[in-house]
């Protein structure tokens, strides 16, 4: 021990004597009664203990065949196809003595809808990543005797809690039809208003009455009686194409673009894209002149939407450390996790989540409170992410891809290896990467909000509710006034949520800055020889940060400085780790 440092006064009042018995007496200042009880029990077992066998806990230092590998994917792109509607049916009643009965074709069924639900218990998107396109079922075609087609099968996409969903693009054929229909009716209205001279205001050209699109026969929209040739039908025989329709369900769709943060388990699935409407059967087109219409309409095409899913794991504690620091070993010693451990860098290639059980319901109930909810806390979760290397924030190593998983951790646990050089420098290096990542993230959030503003200004979302809820004339008047029209639309969009549980757009999560999160340091491999001085220097530095004698390692103003602690542990021998839950609970609550 160097003479300049006064170790006894610097060491934390935690588990130091356990590892450094020569410094005994410093640990008596335990923070809480609980930690004092734990420490006392450890110290009594330590007295007169024979040297520890490093391999006594096999699962903490496993042999290679025992390594577990888990499939993990934290981001993927999915293309979802809502179900198309079934076609309407062309059919006529035929019974004994009724040779040429009336039309009795049923309507086509509505296509299946797409729902999303965040569920607990899942920690990866790999199942979804294997399937890039997911399709809901198509509605069945209508049948004779006015039998409507059955609905298409719905599709439920289940994602882990913590998934962020962003829309990449969408193709909504019904919205395109609506836009076309709206243009046509506006042109018709203008013609009506202009009277006989019929001049187009923009081009100043005479309008051709035959240009009326509504009466235009569209082959792709109509279904003809089997065996009938299109030439048998003149366009005059066809009624105007029915206006585009949407199911009632479409009103609970989130407005475009979809931007969800599913940070809580959902009781009910949330609608993403409603299935398209089925076509109309031939009875809809019976008129005085056409008593037996030999045509029906086809079902609408379903909406397609591409979504980017990104998983941000939700854990109470995030382990941050250099490669090979001993994070996975620490996770294994604290929890029942089977995280892969190995004596080389980048053993961990994807995040692991472990659960520390406080109350296993076998004894007296746990009395730990659970933050805001005030319910007893029965466990807390710990996320172990791949090691960070210098410039991880510039995507070196595996860092950047996985730093997002600690974004939502309530407490950060910096893991430094006492046997691998200056622990203070290691801690400063880790903080540098974390704060650089924070800057990157802030920039990304700003860019995203700018994009969102651009999108909403003056553009009618493609999933704007259908016009068929208002009477045609009323709506035309509103729409002819550009400003008023979009305002009405926007207003209606806010009003249309039928089921507040299912149709709500989840609020965007506003994450606190990473540097303002509570943190502590775990100095691992304290069983290695001559690590004592290194730990003492680390302890001194942490105390100085707490007392604001030196700047915070993140160099941020409002960074967390309360209750800082550095704990020496030997995870591989499971020594010193018992103090971590107590500290974590203090910081969590
Ligand atoms: N002596 C000693 N060795 C340890 C201790 N903790 C971990 N190790 C060893 O350090 C090596 C690396 O441990 P890991 O837990 O895989 O380290 P990691 O930080 O998860 O490494 P990456 O996943 O590569 O980032 C393994 O050989 C462990 O047995 C400890 O407390 N004492
Ligand atoms: Mg690891």
Question: Can you put this structure into words, describing what you see?
Answer:
- The protein has 589 residues and is an alpha/beta fold.
- It has 2 domains: 61-70 and 313-444 and 516-588, P-loop containing nucleotide triphosphate hydrolases (Rossmann fold, 3-Layer(aba) Sandwich), CATH 3.40.50.300; 75-311, GTP1/OBG domain (Spo0b-associated Gtp-binding Protein, Chain: A).
- Helix content is 24%, strand content 15%.
- A 6-stranded mixed β-sheet has the order 12-13-11-14-15-16, with helices on both faces. A 5-stranded mixed β-sheet has the order 3-1-10-5-7.
- Strand 15 (519-524), helix 11 (532-546) and strand 16 (566-568) form a beta-alpha-beta unit.
- Mean pLDDT is 74; it is low at 1-8, 22-48, 198-214 and 456-509.
- Residues 327-328, 347-348, 384 line the site of magnesium ion.
């Amino acid at each position: 021990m160097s003479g300049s440092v006064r170790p006894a006064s610097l060491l934390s009042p935690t588990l130091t004597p356990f590892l450094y018995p020569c410094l005994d007496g410093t640990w008596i200042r335990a923070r809480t009664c609980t930690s004092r009880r734990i420490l006392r029990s450890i110290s009594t077992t330590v007295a007169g203990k024979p040297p520890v066998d490093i391999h006594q806990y096999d699962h903490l230092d496993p042999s290679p065949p025992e390594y577990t590998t888990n499939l993990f994917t934290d981001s993927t792109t999915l293309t979802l196809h809502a179900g198309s509607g079934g076609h309407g049916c062309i059919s006529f009643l035929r019974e004994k003595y009724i040779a040429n009965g009336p039309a009795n074709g049923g309507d086509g069924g509505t296509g299946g809808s797409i729902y999303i639900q965040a569920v607990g218990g899942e920690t990866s998107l790999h199942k979804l990543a294997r399937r890039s396109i997911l399709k809901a079922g198509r509605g069945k075609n209508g049948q004779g005797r006015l039998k409507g087609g059955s609905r298409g099968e719905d599709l439920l996409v289940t994602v882990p809690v913590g998934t962020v969903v962003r829309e990449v693009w969408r193709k909504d054929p019904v919205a395109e039809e609506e836009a076309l229909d709206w243009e046509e009716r506006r042109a018709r209205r203008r013609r009506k208003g202009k009277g006989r001279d019929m001049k187009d205001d923009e081009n100043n050209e005479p309008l051709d009455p035959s240009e009326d699109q509504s009466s235009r026969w569209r082959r792709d929209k109509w279904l003809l009686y089997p065996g009938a040739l299109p030439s048998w039908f003149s366009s005059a025989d066809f009624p105007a194409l029915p206006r585009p329709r949407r199911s009632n369900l479409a009103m609970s769709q989130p407005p475009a673009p979809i931007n969800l943060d599913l940070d809580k388990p959902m009781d009910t699935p949330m609608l993403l894209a409603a299935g398209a409407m089925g076509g109309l059967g031939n009875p809809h087109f019976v008129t005085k002149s056409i008593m037996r219409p030999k045509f029906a309409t086809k079902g609408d095409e379903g909406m397609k939407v591409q979504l980017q899913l990104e998983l941000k794991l939700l854990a109470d504690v995030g382990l941050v450390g250099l490669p090979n620091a001993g994070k996975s070993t620490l996770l294994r010693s604290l929890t029942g996790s089977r995280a892969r451990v190995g004596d080389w860098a980048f053993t961990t290639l994807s995040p692991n989540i472990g659960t520390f059980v406080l109350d296993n319901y076998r004894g007296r109930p746990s009395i730990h409170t659970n933050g805001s909810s005030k319910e007893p806390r029965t466990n807390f979760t710990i996320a172990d992410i791949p090691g960070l290397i210098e410039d991880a924030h510039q995507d070196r190593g595996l860092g950047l891809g996985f730093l997002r998983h600690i974004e939502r951790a309530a407490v950060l646990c910096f893991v430094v290896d006492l046997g691998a050089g200056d622990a203070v420098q290691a801690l400063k290096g880790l903080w540098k990467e974390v704060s650089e990542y924070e800057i990157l993230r802030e920039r990304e959030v700003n860019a995203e909000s700018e994009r969102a503003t651009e999108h909403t200004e003056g553009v009618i979302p493609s999933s704007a509710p259908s016009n068929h809820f208002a009477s045609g004339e009323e709506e035309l008047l509103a729409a002819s006034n550009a400003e008023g029209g979009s305002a009405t639309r926007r207003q209606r969009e806010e009003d249309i949520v039928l089921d507040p549980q299912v149709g709500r757009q989840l609020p965007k999560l506003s994450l606190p800055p990473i540097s303002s999160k509570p943190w502590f340091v775990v100095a691992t491999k304290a069983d290695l020889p001559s690590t004592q001085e290194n730990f003492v220097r680390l302890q001194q530095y942490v105390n100085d940060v707490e007392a604001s004698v030196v700047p915070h390692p993140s160099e941020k103003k409002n960074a967390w400085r309360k209750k800082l602690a550095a704990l020496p542990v030997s995870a591989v021998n499971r020594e010193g780790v018992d103090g971590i839950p107590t500290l974590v609970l203090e910081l969590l609550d």
